[in-house]
Inverse folding.
């Protein structure tokens, strides 16, 4: 309770653009307790008014289901309104006519005074660019920018891990799949740098390895990592098995060998090797790398993980609401 | 009045997935009187609160105007909100990344707790699949699935026929056009099986004949039907002339002969043959098969039919609201 | 104050379909003072109820950002709701199945009783067609029809000019760029015909000249115009430099010579020639014809112009609300 009070009084979140912006204390002491509260509110059916009277814009340049829908539902639970939304701005907005993201955001912010813009951006770095030109009291939430970052996803991933293990230090996490093109994995890696004693197994095909820039960050922040080209031998060491989808829409190429069951995907061998107390996560949507027979495994937590997305986005929006002018 | 009371107390509609799920008594004694009431409410401008506080998702994988708009307006008349909508989920949601309908619906239902998902599904059978995984208190409304069914359309068609004839028994109905690919016609045929003494003329080109499965159903339920390859000779026997559009987007191929005016379309000959007390219906949109000169014919009822779509969807949503937890 | 009172009592705007429908007195005495009031309301954060309980449909057949978003926000500021919206109706509505605009609008109006339909139409003349079939109390707002007209844009342009010069008579305006395909420029030219002593420079490549029909209108209404093929020599005479984007999506072809900086675009030479008290406008989105280095020039008014779009659309919707039945 004292935590929550402290949070209410001290934390005014503004833009949410990259995972690194959140520090350990904010995550553990402010954000996660608030997510707990949001979860309890939804369970009770308690609608809140934090966003009442505010105008939220949902600006999606690329396809999405979970992210767009959970933000929309989160806004509604908080009493706000998505006043304008576009689900394919890359093709159907002025962006298609060659408008820069800076001009677009200046319009929504400086000219139209939107309070919050939840944006999925087609290009890497556009969330930062958007925040840099948003004026006055318009706040930007990065709902994914290119293959760069997806901070709200990484935060909900960490929340789910914390919910299960009651800690974020001293964990062994296997990141499996398309580590080159998955923005989720990058944001998650950045967050790992905030905690102690995390070991990462980076299990990916040769052509899908994690960016050197992210690995440099891991080194600098004392996150131990090891690259691997097969999930099966390392599965037994994992607390968290975090599987991702090959991003075929971003031209990820897989060989026949890459698609061998268990290598970069979950099969019965992996399930047999994985410790009983481990958990299996996936940002979804999934394809063949996470077969539906895994769903009944007690370690499967990816639907709870998706559910936490609603609560995490509610919590982030509520924190932003503290920075908005009174209505 | 006693009917309505009875309805309010006894009928809790949950999922709406296929026309067959409705029985004669529900249709005539519960649903239609409620549609009447909705129509009267709208005429009076009386907004209602049946859906107040509930979160409705409008999930359209394929293009639509009438269905999507009328559901949206129906939700608003009932005091509810479309909290999240997508108008082309096939291309712009995670469905485009290979997600199964089961995963999508689990997310919207189990994870995000949507109250109602109004879905137009690209694939046959996905409405049933969706309802099978929706948990708790999320209800699915089939707003068309592939070329399989469109139950809310068929119900509004029947309501319009009932409004004009004050009965649904002992009618001769001509179903004209693309009977192979039109989901509306199939749902309508299924509903015909609930009533007595209906005779259907199935008037279609050879390559667009009604599915054998539907014809088996008609046989089993004692609906007499006769296939024909020209509308003109049978027009004089019809109570209801139900014209449909060739579904060119579903690769319906028509020959030059098929497009001869009056054969599978309405022309002056058809109008001359059609009895004075008959009515002309069309689910719309229409193309050349129903020329605009028919609009001033007193037997033309297709715009009233479309209007009834608003009231029918209000009634169905109101019936579903009885099954939702109190808010 | 007396102006506003008079306006409130006398002006009931119905459809907004083309610039010519507005006369000088309505613009100066009724509309502009109301825009001022809307601007003041937004600055104070004063939400209004003019549209409360009304159902607005946002029907966009083509891509848009500014127009669609500003209408959506305007509706919200006035307490109304966009009950149904489509952002790419050309592809994803029944229009894609061959439905005529007349049928579409009859459905939204006659069948579904929408109060206001804000429409961006793919085809020239469809706004007029829409208004001609809208029955009862459904009003159409033309948010751009093909390359024909964009009256709300032209009105906000004129408002911005009036805000700066406190007059609309006796001004020299340079219209620069793609005058053949830009609907904004055409609507603006029509509005110029309502005022006295306006001189237009029509600065465009040979293949992008203003339509003869618009020029005939200008002649008839005593608007002096001169065509030019280079901006630089005429810049020094301008009060208003109105730059437009080559509408590449409408197959505008430009030669290498056309793209020479300063010829049909703004460069340092143009800025040097342009009088100090002149203003630079652009309907946005912009591409290379208006480089971002112009943004810090004190004469650059295009973001204020965009902002005025919100207030202008609020004012127009408020005027329409006076014609709607009481709710």
């Amino acid at each position: 309770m004292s935590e929550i009070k402290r949070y209410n009084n001290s934390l005014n979140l503004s833009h949410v653009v990259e995972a690194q912006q959140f520090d350990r204390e904010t995550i553990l002491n402010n954000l996660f307790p608030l997510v707990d509260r949001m979860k309890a509110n939804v369970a009770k059916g308690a609608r809140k008014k934090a966003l009442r009277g505010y105008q939220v814009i949902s600006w999606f340049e690329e396809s999405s289901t979970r992210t767009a829908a959970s933000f929309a539902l989160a806004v509604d639970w908080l009493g706000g309104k998505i006043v304008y939304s576009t689900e394919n701005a890359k093709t159907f907005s002025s962006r298609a006519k060659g408008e820069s993201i800076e001009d677009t955001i200046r319009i929504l912010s400086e000219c139209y005074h939107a309070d919050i813009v939840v944006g999925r951006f087609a290009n890497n770095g556009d969330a930062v660019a958007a925040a840099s030109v948003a004026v006055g009291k318009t706040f930007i939430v990065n709902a994914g920018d290119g293959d760069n970052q997806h901070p709200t996803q990484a935060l909900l991933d960490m929340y789910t891990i914390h919910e299960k293990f009651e800690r974020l230090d001293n964990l062994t996490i296997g990141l499996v799949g398309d580590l080159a093109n998955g923005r989720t994995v990058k944001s998650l890696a950045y967050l790992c740098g905030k905690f102690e004693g995390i070991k990462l197994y980076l299990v990916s095909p040769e052509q899908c390895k994690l960016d050197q820039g992210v690995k440099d960050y891991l080194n600098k922040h004392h996150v131990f990592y090891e690259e691997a080209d097969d999930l099966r031998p390392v599965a037994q060491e994992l607390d968290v098995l975090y599987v991702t989808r090959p991003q075929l829409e971003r031209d990820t190429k897989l060989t026949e060998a890459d698609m061998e069951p268990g290598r970069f995907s979950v099969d019965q061998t992996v399930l047999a090797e994985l410790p009983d107390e481990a958990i299996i996560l996936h940002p979804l949507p999934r394809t063949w790398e996470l077969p539906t027979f895994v769903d009944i495994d007690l370690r499967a937590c990816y639907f709870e993980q998706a559910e936490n997305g609603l609560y995490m986005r509610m919590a982030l929006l509520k924190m932003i609401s503290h920075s908005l002018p009174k209505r």
User: Anything to note?
Assistant: Chain B has two domains: 2-146+309-321, 151-296. The two ends of chain B are 27 Å apart (CA to CA). Residues 172 and 238 of chain B are 5 Å apart (CA to CA).
